[in-house]
Design a protein that fits this description.
The protein is an alpha+beta fold. It has 1 helix and 10 strands. Strand 9 and strand 10 form a beta hairpin. The longest helix is centred in the N-terminal third of the chain and has 20 residues. The chain has a single domain, classed as Immunoglobulins (Immunoglobulin-like, Sandwich).
Length: about 120
């Protein structure tokens, strides 16, 4: 019985020392993106040029490349977009606009992405 208790204490002590010896350098790098999107205005007409802004997107970690892939809800897309885009709608309706923001680490060592959406209302002129 004493031998089992002693072995248990030794094992527990080993794990405590192992945990203490780990430091911040042993943790993996944090890496990610949180997409944010606004529309100006959110309501307009078919004559309105809508401005979409993803510049408030937040990134974590060191990255080499960032890409913005836009879908405007009317079938129009821009997969080589920038952090801001403008778009005009031909037909009245409610449109869901999305941006998929992707970041890539240097030397293709990983990537992360996030999607943000906003709804715009387009009325007839």
């Amino acid at each position: 019985m004493k031998r089992k208790v002693l072995i248990s204490i030794l094992i527990l002590g080993f794990f405590v020392l192992l945990n203490i010896s780990c430091n911040e350098e042993d943790k993996p790098d944090e890496f990610g993106v949180e997409a944010r999107l606004t529309a100006i205005p959110e309501t307009g007409t078919t004559a309105t040029g809508f401005f979409f802004d993803a510049s408030a997107t937040e990134t974590v970690g060191e990255w080499a490349t960032i890409k913005y892939e836009w879908k405007f809800g009317d079938g129009s897309t821009n997969y080589q977009g920038s952090e801001t885009e403008t778009h005009q709608y031909d037909q009245p309706g409610e449109y869901i606009v999305s941006v998929n923001v992707k970041i890539y680490k240097k030397n293709n060592q990983g990537s992360a992405g996030d999607v943000a959406e906003v709804i715009v209302q387009v009325d007839a002129e």
